[in-house]
Specification:
By secondary structure, this protein is α+β, with helices and mostly antiparallel strands. The protein is built from eleven helices and twelve strands.
Length: about 300
């Protein structure tokens, strides 16, 4: 019987999300017959390493955000020669760095939003792009720290003064239309889901994780050409960064002038959520893959990625 350590929690802004993912994964793997040891990851790396002794057969990485999704814990597991789920050091660090990932996507010919990085001081001084535009941290996930600035909005300077995500900020043009997402398992796209935020038009952290915060329409009711493009771009983005296991790509789809519209790749998530409201498990179920089967597949495809 395979012994699996599930790492969850962590010390990032996404700790709460990771805790929810970890609880779900632990239960699913136990239902599949695995021996599972949950490890709530805190700031003491030595304690994490100690919890990995004796070495498990595999680690299920259910961490989200910094130190769990950016290549840090992946490097530790490679060093210890313990197979783990999801992507390795390089792909994880590239995907978490929105500026680096965007540059690689653009070089590969994938559709990305126009934008740039600015200092917090520049953001405080003036609008860095024509309105409306989106402000986001370079190295966070789950829409943490993301804001939409529209015409007449006076929050820009306040956002800059309260910024806690480093000295630089990514700003991008706002793409009107719809929010789409596509999950990928290694080399195949699962489905295209449209996400509609219930509370408003912006899909923020609350919309993602609050019960009833958003509606998921699967398959998305989009033009067949846009559907095919989203599926193909998600797989191409996965390959461009050298991702492994499961990923999820987020898109904006501007169909305000009619269909087929303009599809824009926003980012790729190398540690898709496994919470009760998460999109990847929902897409897997749409394809006939249960949550238990999805978790087992991830463990069976665990490897050292160095």
């Amino acid at each position: 019987m395979t012994r699996v350590v599930v790492l969850y929690g962590g010390i990032s802004a996404e700790r709460e999300v990771s805790m929810s993912s970890g609880v779900q994964v632990v239960a699913a793997l136990r239902e599949c017959g695995f021996t599972v040891d949950p490890v709530d990851v805190g700031p003491d790396l030595g304690a994490v390493i100690a919890a990995l002794n004796p070495k498990p057969d595999a680690v299920f990485n259910a961490l989200h955000g910094r130190f769990g999704e950016d290549g840090a814990i992946q490097g530790v597991l490679d060093w210890l020669e313990i197979p783990y789920t999801h992507s390795g050091v390089r792909a994880s660090s590239l995907a978490m760095d929105k500026q680096a990932a965007k540059a690689l996507f653009a070089a590969a010919g994938l559709p990305v939003a126009r934008g740039r990085t600015v200092s917090v001081g520049e953001l405080a001084a003036a609008d860095p792009l024509p309105l409306p535009y989106v402000i986001k941290p370079l190295n966070e996930g789950s829409s943490v720290g993301v804001s939409l600035i529209r015409g007449g909005d006076n929050r820009r300077s306040n956002i800059a003064r309260a910024w806690t995500f480093g000295p630089t900020v990514m700003v991008e043009e706002y793409i009107p239309g719809r929010e789409l997402t596509v999950g990928v398992l290694e080399d195949r796209a699962l489905a295209v889901t449209e996400i509609r935020a219930v509370a408003g038009s912006f899909y923020d952290y609350e919309s993602k994780y609050a019960d009833g915060g958003s509606r998921h329409i699967i398959p998305a009711a989009v033009h067949p050409d846009a559907h095919a493009e989203a599926m193909a771009v998600a797989v191409a983005a996965h390959r461009t960064l050298g991702c492994r296991g499961a990923t999820r790509c987020d898109f904006r789809y501007d169909d305000t002038a009619g269909e087929p519209g303009r599809l824009v790749l926003l980012e790729i998530n190398t540690q898709p959520g496994m919470t009760p409201t998460s999109l990847l498990p929902e897409q897997a179920a749409h394809r006939g893959i249960s949550f238990q089967q999805l978790c087992a597949w991830m463990v069976e495809n665990a490897a050292c990625r160095a």
